[in-house]
Amino acid sequence: MKRIIGLDYGSVTVGVAISDALGFTAQGIEVIRRKQENKLRQTLARIEELIATYEIGQIVVGYPKHLNNTVGERAIKSEEFAEKLRQRTGLEVILWDERLTTVAVHQVLDQGGLNYQEKALVVDKLAAVLILQGYLDRLAFMKKEENNHE
């Protein structure tokens, strides 16, 4: 089984997480930073390097819909980013609902007593972990349901 990469796409950062070889757990590996939002060449090149290094077979991109389930500017930018990834890598790209992910990350970090600068260094990576772990948990649930119906 190939690994899955999870991405938290932000205006100037992309948090990155990868699954373990069996697809059970997500681990944060890095945050890719860029100077401007629309300068994606180096970001996409780095993601392609990670895909090759970790033998990735699928990409999951956080999809920041509004709480009322509508699609706003950030979600549209995530859709565009996902399409660029599809075109460049040829891999399946899943948009995964990430509502409340950032809120959950901040709650965890607040409990850890980190200051603002410390939080800023890890928030995107942890958001990527939560996005990917949510997707992995859903896959595991669906597989279990499938096995129960056989």
Describe the structure.
The two termini are about 20 Å apart. About 50% of the residues lie in helices and about 25% in strands. It is globular and about 50 Å long. It is an alpha/beta fold. It has a single domain, classed as Nucleotidyltransferase, domain 5 (2-Layer Sandwich). The model has no long low-confidence stretch (mean pLDDT about 90).
Question: Keywords, please?
Answer:
150 residues; alpha/beta; Nucleotidyltransferase, domain 5; five-stranded mixed beta sheet; 4 helices; 24% strand; globular
Describe the secondary structure blueprint for this structure.
Layout: E1 3-9, E2 13-19, E3 26-33, H1 41-53, E4 56-63, H2 73-89, E5 92-97, H3 101-111, H4 116-148
Parallel strand pairs: 1-4, 4-5
Antiparallel strand pairs: 1-2, 2-3
Strand order within the widest beta sheet: 3-2-1-4-5
**Shape estimate:** globular
Query: In what range is the share of β-strand residues?
Result: 15-25%
* Sequence stretches where pLDDT stays below 50 over 5 or more residues: none
Indicate the structural class: alpha/beta
CATH superfamily: YqgF/RNase H-like domain
CATH class assignment: Alpha Beta
Could you please say which CATH topology applies here?
Nucleotidyltransferase, domain 5
Number of strands: 5
Can you write the helix and strand succession as a string?
EEEHEHEHH
The Rg value, from CA coordinates, equals 15 Å
Proper CATH architecture: 2-Layer Sandwich
Rounded average pLDDT: 91
How is the biggest beta sheet arranged?
Answer: 5 strands, mixed
